[in-house]
Amino acid sequence: MKFYTLFITFTLFIFGTFANQEMGPDQDPGVGRCNVYKKCPLKKQYRNSKLSEKELEKDKYHQCCSYYSHCGESIEYCGVGCQFGDCLPEYKDQTRQLFVCHSLYLQNRCSNDCPCLNGACCSKYGYCGTTKEFCDEGNRMTSTLATKFITLSIPTASKTTTTTTPTPTIKVVKGMCGKDIGSCSEGHCCSKYGWCGSTKDHCYISKGCQSEFGKCQNDSSSTKETKKSTTTTTSKKTSASKKVNSTTKNTITKKTSKTLTKKAKTTSTIKKIAGKCGEGYGKCPKGLCCSKYGWCGSAKDYCAKGCQPKYGKCLN
To answer: Where do the Chitin-binding type-1 domain residues begin and end (predicted)?
Structure first.
C-alpha cells in the first residue's frame, strides 16, 4: 500500500514538473502572452537556428507583442500598437502616437494630435469637456474636431487548430489616417504621425505631411479665409440713324445712347471645417446631431438640450 501511494505521488510530481515547463523552441507556441519581462517566442524559422543565444535575443527574431500583449506574426500584432518584437517600422510613429494619446486620455487631457473622445471638445488648455468653457470658439483648441470611435479588429488564433476566437478590439479615434487606415476628409492634411488636421504641423511638407492621404502645402503657402466680390455692369446702346437728304447730297446721322444702371453683387465664402454644422456650415452626416455650439456628434450633449434639428437629428 505504501509503495502504491509513493508511486502515485512521484508520478504526479513528475507530471507537474514537465507540465509547467515553457515550450521549447521547436514546439508550436500557439497563442502566447507577453509583457516587459517576457518576450514572445522565436519565429518558427529561427527555432532551430545555429545563431548564438545573444544574437537570438534581438527583437527581429521574435514574434510581435501586440497592444493587448498577445504574440503573433501578422499585421494585427506587428502593426499599430506593437510593443516589441519584429514590429513593422512603417507603423512606428502611429504606435508612438497611440500610446501618447492613451496616457493623455487617462488624465482627461487632449492635444492637437489627440482629439477628445465621445464628441467632447478640447479646450485651449488641453482638457476635454462639453460645456461652453470647452466648446465656445474662443475657448476651443482650433484644430480639434468632434470625433467618434471606430474599431480595428484583431483576430487571435486559438490553441486548437480547428477554431479561432476573436480578442477585444483596439479603439482608434476617428481622425487617424495613413496606410491601412484611409485618407482624411476633404480639405484636411495627414500628419507624419497619421492624424488629420489643418495646422502647419499637419499640412507642411517639411513637417512630414503625407500627401497620399490628404492635402499638403509648402511652408510658404497658407490657407486663409477669402472674400470674393464680383461686379457686373450691363449696358445697352441703342442708336437711331436719321438720314436727311439735301440738295448738296450730305448725310447727317444722329446717335442717342442709353446706359442702364450698374448692378454690383458681392458674395463671401465661409471656410468649411470638418465636424462643424449650423448656419453657413450645413447639416451633419446622416445619424449625427448638431449641438447648440455647432458641432456634429452622437452623445447626449449633442442630441438633447440645445440640439439644432434643422441641421441633424435630435432626441425628442
So the answer is: 174-218, 274-316
